[in-house]
Design a protein that fits this description.
- This protein is of the alpha+beta class and 444 residues long.
- The protein has seven helices and 24 strands.
- It has an eight-stranded mixed beta barrel with strand order 3-4-5-6-7-8-9-10, surrounded by four helices. Strands 11-18-17-12-13-22 form a six-stranded antiparallel β-barrel.
- A hairpin with a 6-residue loop joins strand 1 and strand 2.
- The radius of gyration is 26 Å and the shape is elongated.
- The two termini are 31 Å apart.
Length: 444
């Protein structure tokens, strides 16, 4: 489950110290970039004498509008998400998922005031608490205002500068300046992937946070994954709350990579030849290391950890991108979100989770999938689980970790014998469209 870490930006600051400036007529140009000269501002409370730290560069390890901390494998840089909208439905959906920083045009301060007042009501707070994973978080609206290509907070402090990129020449002008620790918001009007990669390369190691304006979750994914590290944040400019939900789902999937799966050690009780069947061989768009594979099983309640073909052998070359899942077409395979699907449902572009013998997982994209008729073998384990797998030396089950030295990582099913130990993922057996549910079920 993802963990939303709410920024201390407004925590402990009396609302009397959060005034909203009256609207000012400002000419707004279609040029965009954001620079923050304020990374953090300390405000003294007259009532308590305590000092509250206001941080506008609130960061998320993968997501957040205020920021939520969502670490994910390969994407370790802190990420920030802000919302640019005039839809109250979008606002409610965003705040309910921990994203409460919103951008307004200069003539929409009245709307910002309305939303801020709304966020103080008991009904709104109760509604938000239904969605918030951190039940102690404060769901305050954090408004930012655009004025003449700059972004300001509610007290008039400059937060960022907009910059529009529509040519290689404009892109080349985007370079970090050591003496100006401002952050940048870019609006890429033409190409997206290559400019985003160039910006990530140019700003690596810099204290400047670079944001990109995006109108869809798929665009956001491009910006957040450029050169693996991604840009520092995004500004989601939408009027449809569905985009907020899809973006949160994206972060949740990425967050799974930091969750360690609980694997169970099981002892083989029976191995015997079963006959012919249609098995599934799965190629991924990622290379796997020794001790990594896919979770596959004839029953969803117990999935066997099947090793990839990354190990060298005398008769066949190493194929570290492949898992001969071995299971016939009816077998289950683990996919992101705690779900399963049938091996026969895998196709190019679908996602699966790759797991190692310590339970560490990561998401991988499926490439080509081959279904061919092959001899099958039935493997049973002591915890009353079983799996039909292809009877071939390239199909192996991963063993429990045995510490230092040169532990055995996997056992080919052709060499399995009673008493061998392998790894299983034990979970609920009842499923509806791959989602675990609570119901009475008998599988045998």
């Amino acid at each position: 489950m993802s963990t939303l870490v709410y920024s201390p930006s407004l925590a402990g600051i009396p609302t009397s110290q959060l005034p909203f400036f009256p609207p000012k007529p400002v000419k707004f140009k279609s040029c965009g970039l954001i620079s923050w000269y304020v990374n953090s501002v300390t405000i003294s409370s007259k009532n308590s004498g305590k000092r509250a730290r206001l941080q506008f560069s609130s960061r998320v390890t993968m997501c957040s509008s205020n920021p939520s901390s969502i670490p994910s494998a390969g994407y370790r840089q802190p990420k920030v998400v802000w919302i640019w909208t005039e839809s109250k439905q979008v606002m409610t959906a965003a705040v309910g998922r921990g994203w409460n920083t919103f951008i307004f045009l200069p003539d929409r301060r009245e709307l910002a005031n309305e939303w801020f007042a709304c966020s103080q009501t008991t009904v709104f707070k109760c509604l938000i608490l239904i969605f918030l994973e951190n039940q102690t978080a404060i769901a305050l609206i954090h408004p930012l205002f655009i004025e003449e290509e700059k972004l300001f907070d509610s007290e008039g402090r400059r937060v960022a500068t907009f910059y529009e990129v529509s040519s290689p020449q404009q892109l080349q002008l985007l370079q970090p300046v050591d003496k100006q620790p401002d952050n940048v918001i870019i609006n890429l009007l033409d190409w997206q992937v290559i400019p985003a990669e160039n910006i990530v390369a140019a700003f690596q190691g810099s204290q400047i946070t670079v944001f990109a304006i995006t109108k869809t979750p798929s665009e956001a994914q491009v910006f957040l994954e450029a050169l693996e590290q991604g840009l520092g944040g995004i500004v989601l400019k939408v009027d449809d709350s569905t985009a907020v939900l899809e973006l949160k789902d994206y972060f949740d999937r990425r967050n799974e990579d930091d969750n360690i799966l609980s694997l169970t050690k099981a002892t083989i009780t029976q191995v015997h030849i079963s006959g012919m069947g249609d098995r599934v061989c799965t190629d991924l768009c990622s290379l796997m290391r020794p001790s990594e594979g896919l979770l596959v099983g004839s029953f969803a309640r117990g999935l066997f950890l099947v090793h990839s073909e990354c190990l060298e052998s005398n008769y066949i070359a190493s194929r570290p991108f492949r898992v001969n899942a071995g299971g016939p077409v009816h077998a289950y395979v683990a996919i992101p979100g705690g779900k399963t699907c049938y091996l026969s449902e895998l196709n190019t572009g679908k996602q699966v989770i790759v797991v190692d013998q310590n339970g560490k997982q990561r998401t991988a994209i499926v490439g080509p999938v081959k279904i061919e008729t092959r001899p099958l073998i039935l493997v049973e384990a002591r915890v009353c689980e079983c799996a039909l797998l292809q009877n071939a030396e390239t199909v192996a089950l991963i063993c429990p970790s045995q510490g230092s030295g040169f532990p055995k990582k996997a056992i080919p099913v052709t060499s399995l014998k009673v008493g061998d130990e392998i790894l299983l993922k034990i979970q609920g057996g009842a499923r509806h469209t791959g989602i675990e549910i609570q119901e009475f079920i008998v599988e045998k």
